[in-house]
Amino acid sequence: MPRTITGVVIHCAATPNGKPFTRADIDAMHRQRGFHRQPAAITRYKTVLGHELPSIGYHYVIELDGSLKPGRHPEEIGAHVQGSNSKTLGVCLIGTDRFTLDQWATLRNLIANLKQQYPTASVLGHRDYSPDLDGDGVVERNEWLKICPGFDVKTWLAGGMRPLADHLQEAPCNLIA
Fold first, then answer.
1. Where is the N-acetylmuramoyl-L-alanine amidase domain (predicted)?
2. Which of 99, 134, 101, 116 lies closest to 125 in space, CA to CA?
3. Residue 92: which CATH number?
């Protein structure tokens, strides 16, 4: 039976803006943090995903050139937002708070597709999952546990999912690692 998905969570890799970083690099970071995929899932989905990365916590990674790379299969529980992994999908943009036009375009297309598949799912940034410490019903900047994904997802959605000018990485620092 398919997982019930109630949310899509947008993340950033918290890496230097414009510097290449891959899902294999994320897998290594997540392995160091103790994340792991179930061995049966790795075997079951390796052909579909095209990899056997054992630790990646996100379901999707968007690289600088806009390439969309699978992480975990959507039927796997992620490791990307503590306390909410069982019913969410994690999307990670390479960078911290500035993303290329290609990344913005891929994010827009991915979110549009995921909203078609999961029409009742909310779309939020990782920081929006921070606790409402003062109990006023709003998670304010001083309550954020992380800045991730480095931009306000609600503002981006309300603006038609167009690139946010203050969060645009015009040119990668170095596409050759």
1. 1-138
2. 99
3. 3.40.80.10
Query: What gap in Å lies between CA 12 and CA 93, rounded to an integer?
Result: 5
Q: Considering just the CA atoms, what is the radius of gyration of the chain in Å?
A: 16
- Structural domain tally of the chain? 1
- pLDDT tens-place string over residues 104-113: 999 999 999 9
Strand 88-93 vs strand 60-62: parallel, antiparallel, or unpaired?
parallel
| pLDDT at residue 46 tops 80 | yes
Whether residue 1 is contained in a domain is answered as: no
- What are the DSSP calls for 83-145, one per residue? T-GGGEEEEEESSSS-B-HHHHHHHHHHHHHHHHHSTT-EEEEGGGGS--TT-SS---GGG-S
Residues 55, 80: contact at Cβ < 8 Å?
Answer: no
Domain that holds residue 43: 7-167
Q: Return the bridge partners of 168, or none.
A: 99
